[in-house]
Specification:
The protein has about 475 residues and is α+β, with helices and mostly antiparallel strands. About 20% of the residues lie in helices and about 30% in strands. The chain has 9 helices and 32 strands. It has a 6-stranded mixed β-barrel. Strand 14 and strand 15 form a beta hairpin. The protein is globular and about 65 Å long.
């Protein structure tokens, strides 16, 4: 066959066509219509351009340096990401489906826990509400972030799950008299610490422990015993003790904690739990004199980056906007919020405010996906789907998530912004990494509706990503600022 000849006239016409196409793009013609500069500005202001490759996990750690120069700041990492020591235990890294199942169990345990305190506040079956202890009982397997502290003299570094919904801090201890699960770091040995001591059974501290946990006062050979159980079957029992705790080289304190001799459950390699709740004996309460019950954190945008946990109010961003804590959950471990509205793509959703006040809301670092009253979620889902109508929806592989898309044919997608509004005129934008949960074949909207409009809403960790979240105990308020970490 002879070579194909392109005529000069065709080539000239083709070049003119390319020039026109470039000019049309410069002038703002998109998908066959001219986009005005105002429309273009609106798209940039109310939509995210998301690289599809960024939705899937990376195997490389890219630490953030933001805020780690603050006084009393600790790096905070995703427990299964490449920045964590626990990442070495790849056999125990849960799938997305397992994470969502654990998340569902934690939500149920929060609803049950708060139902026992205020039975009229949430629509939980009575059998569910009576299966958990009154003041502990959370599911901890879904909690995703860890920090490393130093315990004992000389100090031993321990990676603890970070949880704003729990009060008692504990770690596994030698000799593991009954049982210890496998952890990455060496198990803490009290006999090797020159500053370790057990708390006496007849002390006020032992009586306070019983009050905080809601358990009868427990003792063994005149030593105070703690016992915490969680809704997923995890538990820790052992001696209530005191030892030296090191946050930084300049921050060393006497610290009350549980030294676990019988430990089981879904902690997947971590050494124990760091309780950041509101009750006495929680981490913030123990250091009230040093830090005035003031702490902040930033959850990283992805599992391959790092955030921070910091104590005290030095270095808090001046752009933080505060919303008052809800009075509904005083006397519990939880920090209550008053949600007043939500917007999608710059459009305030037509959700009556009583929908949020009927349910009430808490903020929880250990719940991954935000839970909303079903009435509010239905409106959010409808508007999100409407604004995403150019993309094909697919059947969900990770229920209860129900708004899923197959983006594999696109290098980038345009996704509407989502913003939450809280009392005190506080507006909180959700980072683009907090909008979806993704598996290789699909990405799903990372919000779930509760079963009933009376079920408590939960502002989850995924939607807190990259925000500096500030807890001001004495001021009874929580603050938010964007750009806290990468």
């Amino acid at each position: 066959m002879g070579a194909t000849t392109i005529s000069p006239a065709f080539l000239s016409a083709y070049l003119i066509f390319l020039q026109c196409l470039v000019c049309s793009l410069k002038e703002g013609y998109v998908f066959g219509r001219r986009e005005s500069s105002a429309e273009s500005h609106h798209d940039l202001q109310h939509n995210h351009i998301i690289q599809i490759s960024s939705l899937l996990p990376s195997n490389f750690c890219t630490p953030s340096t933001q805020a780690l120069d603050k006084k009393s700041a600790l790096p905070l990492v995703h427990k299964h990401g490449p920045c964590s020591q626990l990442h070495q235990d790849k056999a125990n890294i849960p799938t997305d489906a397992e994470i969502i199942l654990l998340d569902e169990a934690r939500v149920k345990s929060i609803h049950s826990k708060l139902a026992k305190i205020n039975p009229g506040s949430t629509n939980v079956k009575q059998t569910d509400a009576t299966t958990l202890p009154a003041k502990d009982g959370l599911v901890i397997g879904s909690a995703s972030y860890i920090v490393t502290i130093g315990l004992g003299t000389p100090k031993k570094d321990l990676s603890l799950i970070f949880d704003t919904g729990s009060d008692i801090t504990w770690t596994q201890c030698q000799p593991c008299a009954v049982q210890c699960y496998q952890q990455v770091e060496p198990i803490f040995s009290p006999s090797e610490s020159s500053t370790y001591s057990n708390i006496s059974c007849d002390s006020e501290l032992c009586r306070l422990l019983a009050f905080v946990t809601g358990n009868p006062q427990l003792c063994q050979d005149s030593t105070c015993v703690y016992d915490v159980k969680y809704g997923d079957g995890s538990a820790s029992t052992g001696f209530f003790a005191m030892d030296s705790l090191t946050l930084t080289s300049n921050d060393v304190f006497n610290f009350l904690f549980g030294c676990g001799q019988h430990n089981r459950g879904e902690l997947r390699g971590s050494a124990g739990l760091l309780g950041l709740g509101r009750q006495q004996l929680s981490f913030p309460s123990q250091f009230e004199v040093a830090y005035n019950k003031f702490f902040s954190y930033c959850l990283p945008s992805t599992a391959s980056s790092t955030g921070f946990l910091t104590f005290g109010n030095s270095g808090v961003s001046p752009s933080v906007k505060f919303t008052p804590l809800s009075t509904e959950y005083q006397g519990t471990s939880f920090y209550g919020l008053d949600i007043t509205g939500i917007s999608v793509g710059g459009q305030k959703l037509p959700i009556p405010e009583f929908v949020f006040t009927t349910a009430g809301a808490v903020i929880d670092s250990g719940t991954d996906v935000t839970r909303l009253p079903p009435t509010a979620y239905a409106v959010l889902r409808f508007e999100f789907r409407r604004q995403m109508s150019q993309y094909r929806m697919v059947r969900s592989q990770i229920p209860p998530l129900d708004t899923c898309y197959d983006f594999r044919r696109y290098p980038t997608v345009l996704v509407p912004t989502i913003r939450f509004f809280f009392s005190g005129d506080v507006e909180v934008p959700i980072h683009k990494e907090g909008i979806f949960i993704s598996v290789p074949s699909q990405s799903c909207l990372a919000f779930v509706g509760n079963e009933d409009d009376t079920d408590i809403a939960i502002f989850g960790g995924r939607q807190q990503k990259t925000l500096e979240v500030v807890y001001d105990g004495p001021g009874e308020r929580i603050g938010f600022a964007t750009g806290g970490c990468a």
